[in-house]
Amino acid sequence: MDPFHADATSPNAMMLDTPDDLPIDLTNTSDKDDVVLITPDGSDAGVPAPPVASDYEAMKELVLPPLADEPRILDDQVYTWTVESWRALGKKEHGERFMAGGFPWRILLFPFGNNVDQCSIYLEHGFDEDLPVPEDWSCCVQFALVLWNPNDPTIYSHHQATHRFTKEESDWGFTRFLELRKMFNQPWEGSDRPLVENDTANITAFVRIVEDETGVLWHNFNNYDSKKETGFVGLKNQGATCYLNSLLQSLYFTNAFRKAIYHIPTEHDESMNNSAYTLQRLFYQLQTSNTAVSTSELTKSFGWETRHIFEQQDVQELSRKLMERMEEKMKGTLYEKALPEMFSGKIKTYISCINVPYESSRIEDFWDVQLNVSGNKDLLDSFRDYIQVEKLEGENQYFAGDEYKLQDANKGVIFKSFPDVLHLQLKRFEYDMQRDTMMKINDRYEFPEEFDAAPYLDKDVDMSEPWEYELHGVLVHSGDLNAGHYYAFMKPGKEGWWYKYDDDKVTKATKREVLEENFGGEYKVHGVRQTTQKKAPIMRPNSAYMLVYIRKSRLDKILTPVTVEDTPAHLRQRFEEEIALREAKRKEREEQHLYLGVRVITDETYKHHGGTDLTAMEANPEEDEAAPKHFRLLRSATMAEAVEQIATKLGQDPRRVRLWVMVNRQNKTVRPDQPVMDLRPTVDETYQRAAGHRDQALRVWMEVADEVDAEGNAVWPTYQGQPNGISVKNDLILLFLKWFDVEGQTLRGAGHVYISKEKKVEDLVPHILQRMGWGEKLPDHEKILLWEEIKPTMIESLKHKISLKAAELQDGDIVCFQRSHDKKSKLGLGEHKSHEEVQKPTDRFEDARDYYDFLLNKKLVKFHAHPTKSDAAKYPPFEIVLNGKMSYDKLAEKVGERLGVEGTHIRFYTVNSQTGNPRTAVKRTPNQTLLNILTPSGYGSLQANHRNDALYFEVLDMSLAEMDTKKTIKLTYLSEGITKEDHYDILVTKSGTVEDLIEALIKKAKLLSEEEGGKIRVFETSGHKIFRDLERTYPVISINDYSNVVAERIPEEELVEAMDQNQYISCFHFQTEPSRVHGMPFKLLLHEGERFADTKKRLEKRTGLKGKSFEKIKFAVVRRQRFSQPQYLQDDDILWDVAASEDDFLGLDHVDRSRSLRNGVGDLFLKG
């Protein structure tokens, strides 16, 4: 059985975790049970006979093979339990205790299976109540359990496993050790007796205790604390940022680099867009945090969006760009040269003549060295390969100027200096010419802990200080080209442990993990018994791709200790503030159940409110003056205490304040209901009585009394409290006033009034005049219009002569008023309105009801110039608040006013909500409104995945009305063979022909006329093949809107003969299979009797493909029949003869480059 079989479990059904470094075929990869069969004829003479179960030393070699981790063995013990009267045993039995590694152990047996029809056997520690498990105890054990017949030890079955035993995971073994039906009565395979004979069998435990050198051998990492175990923390993986994490850990532990970053002046630019500041924050958190640190602040400062976080980038490029950015930030500071001195060396490229004193050379800086892995066995081989000298001789001689002419010369590179911190990029990813793709090189490639760089330096370099380097960082890639994981091994100090930094997890690491396991190549095969079957080697998926070496003589300088005091003071202060804020928020969350939020509307907030109701309850008071004031009060506080706190905070005398509880009315408005006169109940009790279970906070309106008595206590118009504690309600009602300012086009709160419900509506006018300071009476040509705001969609005019009671007004209702001009009185009889007065602006409202309707339908819309159809520099983005009911024409007029163009010349496009790109143009229809455009209803809304707050616009050369008479043709113009495609939207009169389309293309693309540049032809393509040629007389109205229309100049060779006599073949591109089509199809003129070698020369000119791109193409004739195989052509073939049918195609078989561009990763960039 496989030693890491999935059935190796705890009796509590805990599954065995398969190790990352799986050893190769440690014993037997068969899915069958581990049964040793002794062949009587000894036919396999070359294979040693299996051991017998009673030979413990021989069995130990079989069942306890060497482990891939190669841990040191601390103790080996063997214990055998003879199980008698098997069928009389209970459900669960234990063997005697035995000692191994100084700890007690015993065998746990389920004779008839642990809820399965197989025998279950486990190993468990022997601690119990008399001998309790030590705190934080763990023991790493390789063990095997062998069930065998004591009368015939050649009959046995065995399983083996490894496990980290702890207090929580006290047992481990095999739930499905052996099927019960095979154990009794039935003769064992290759024998005439059963395994359990006479109800007796032996169970032998082979227990090997191994050293847990790092403290994490076979660890499941549940509740693992990196900081506690190692003193360091990791970095969280945002998606695919493990490559970034490994690089950042490498730079962080380059202490001199960390100090240099801390010295970048950021105290005056603590912006999250400043990458230097966010890198300082990241390093400080790695230094002080107890948990893994997020890199999101840093990546946001790079300008990366979510999609960039899920793209794996080139680590070398990222390192280079990060260094450049930090170097820019350090300019003008004391640390301006810190990074070049730390990471930059010099290299000389030279051509040196052998026989004359002439040399051409240049010296350049380098920040890392890229070394070839392929063809080199180790690092030193790669360095020798790097500086290898090339002889320039014979036809390759070097021209050494007019004096020396052509000379034999040596060409190469040599290092002039190495930096203190040497970054070596191992070229694990290279282009494979055969596969025409990038591949990962998994060859074994060794690198030393130390090496001497002196042999690779120029002979004139100063050697007084040794050029010896010590390994301090190994960055690893595990996986293949398309999917993998990055992590790093770092040695933070001159001495001490190596650590593995795998995203948010940090563990100690052995030198074997750092070196041997990251050399790549094949897994070593341990303890495999000889077999007759050869198996293919398994390659390690993990290998080093970047090495960090530090010059030994500069170790103290580079690894200088970094303390909290080395960090910028402003950074420490900011984090202390953030920690204090987090602590306050934590405490607030813990005590949240003790407090209740209270939202308080005041006369001042109401005065600034420009919408419906008294306020917008969810508005933020820090951003909106009309938002209710927020309070956090103890639920157990009395309402008297609540009034005291609220009034004091708002600068009012608590004796003059009372609170009205707001309630949700049936029409979904929120209005004051009645005042809180009894101040003895608690805040929570008041909240519950106000149907608080529906609201997250207690909502109140704060009333401040206008009148007080001699003692300073409030005298309320209604609900006045009596000595007996009962509040008396009279016939006065509380009404809130709102003013619609026609001139200012605003709506604002205007306080409140108390008035008898028996009074008439017109009796409100004197109160309004007084409150607004408009005098006792308005001019004769003006009047006050009154409206009741019942709900946002119901604004009703109030009749002046009816009573308030008849108007059904009650406490908390809102009355809106406006001044209205009597136009007839103002103009006088017989006068006429001027033209300006007759024209009513689209965004001006003459009465409150229309304005309320605008509030209900207003939309803040963002407008952007179409990225390909308008000049974004000329028309920058802008926002306008618009009425959702306005028509397309009114929308265009409004946008046109903002742009300074005619509204009739503007076309709109919706915005894709996923990509942000323009979608189709909005059709202009008579009944279309802005709301219909942004949020379509009906069937179309199911496909509408566009934004409801943004539009693209295009400024047209003609009006939309004129454009409606034209048809837009999306056309691709081939200007250089088929290699360059220019895309145009061509407008042609709907009654026009292809001839008109060609003329419009020449004008739009500013091409030479057909007389000067040559005839142009137009054809349609479908599925990357030519569909049909379009005659010049073909009507454009018949061209399908979704077809691909292509135009090109007719090649000269086709014009030599009469075109109607030419014979063509259609050509298309495919990759491997003719069904995998791509690229731009074209037609090729056939020449009778022409060898294909000459045809290829014409094809190179016809397509515009040159050099290696053309050389990689394989050509084949493809029949139109389905599933036909391509017939590949040789140079001596005659295409005229091979492509005998008109239905034959010429296929160009080559890699689809556009696919990698569509699916590939964009260029790496850092913004901040």
TrEMBL record:
It is found in: Nucleus. This is ubiquitinyl hydrolase 1. GO terms for cellular component: cytosol; nucleus. Belongs to the peptidase C19 family. GO terms for biological process: protein deubiquitination; proteolysis; regulation of protein stability. It is an enzyme of class 3 (hydrolase). Residues 76-207 form the MATH domain. Residues 233-552 form the USP domain. It comes from Coniochaeta pulveracea. The keyword Glycosyltransferase does not apply. PROSITE patterns: MATH, USP_1, USP_2, USP_3.
